[in-house]
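Hey, resending since the last one bounced:
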Amino acid sequence: MKKQVIFIMVDTQRTDMLGCYGNDGMHTPNLDKLASQGLRYTNAQTCQPVCAPARGSIFTGLYPHANGIVTNSCGLYENVKTVGQRLTDNGVYCAYVGKWHLDGGDYFGTGICPEGWDENYWYDMRRYLEEMSEEDRRRSRKSKTSFDPTWTEDMTFAHRCTNKALSFLDDHSDEDFFFTLSYDEPHGPCICPAPYNTMYDGYKLPVSENFDDDLDTKTLMQRLWSGQKKNLTGSELNVASDSLSLFLGCNSYVDSEIGRFLEQVYAKCPDALIIYTADHGDMLWNHKINSKNSCGYKEVLNIPLMIKGGATGVVDHPASHIDVVPTILDYMNVPLPKWLDGKSMLPQIQDGTTKINDYVFSEFTRYELIQDGNGGFQPMRLVFDGRYKLVVNLLDSDELYDLDTDPAEVHNLIDSADHATIRNQLHDVLLAQMDTTRDIYRGFQWACRPWREDKAPSFRNAGYVRQLENEEYEPRQLEYDTGMPMVSAVRTKILGADKKP
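The structure tokens again:
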């Protein structure tokens, strides 16, 4: 049997924007069909709720703090390799169509095909814009263009990406491959043709008590982010609007484009492993905040994840984007490198029941390198076990939620004596994970929180040296004290060992 993996992704989609996740007000028949043919994950989580950092983790298998993309407009570290590079170097053919956002440039990319992907199919947003006149470029960035009859469907980014993807299937459906189709939609400006541009006129989001979250027990960052919206009631915030209608319409439009592609996948590559997800979600005024930024709420972190090619059903175990790369490498029989932060999900994909993760992690550093605003530097680290979620905000107050009793994440339990044991357990897991993944921002402040009286500041922190093992692409690193190849990458650091007697 051929080894074919198809990875499809959209930009900015919550789970409640799909019918298969329980919102019957959403028109997403093609993704609903895909979900019915494979596994649908209810507790999948992005690694950071911002475009570039989220994508960096998806395509490298490393957390943002490890791969270099800690914010939009940062590029990957030079020694970090994407899944396309790793597969190509192991003889697997790879191609990529759509939004990239990993080159450190602006929103649209550089137009340059990175190492590991076929130049003939490379089609990022810059290449899309360069096909247009100056006038059409400007029109392509205006939401009102959705209602311009001269802007035909074939002028949208989604439609042209699908056409490019269909061309790929025509040329390579009889081969082994890894193929990515990455839409920008439904991300703003949300351009979509009729009938999608008016499909959700008058629609309001499902009622949730978190529209009335007063944020009094939450972070200062969230209160600043909310601004004057903090003074509004839930009924004043959760209203039908032109912007919400167009956003959800674009969401249904991209579903139709995905359906156009999947119809040919089912016909030409019936045994392909298909993975579908979104990079992150959007607050949409839940908790009185909009868009995405430094917070741990499910509206931005809990993303759709569906996988066809093994078992069928629903998986409630915690899942993470960090496991995408090791899963693809494992499926393609490529040995998993030591320098990956995730695990292969293949056993779970095959039987639908195996638990891969006891905990999943997310983070935040800042929203955008090239912008001064959006809160600036807001370091956050988060651990989630499927029920309890601990959010440590380094420069602010912290949060703990019990999603079994408080699915809307309104009631902050960080100072609850009844929850101290689970809180401290999660905290210890989080600190250990920061050490293990060589978090560049780790330090004693993450441990010494006001609610953690048993933690004392330590100059040495965990006290280990943690060198990198990236020997698929570079020589084994040398020990500082001997100049010889390191025996153990993780070892105790003895203070003063390098000093002369």
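Residues 496-501 have pLDDT under 50 and may be disordered.

Sorry for the duplicate.
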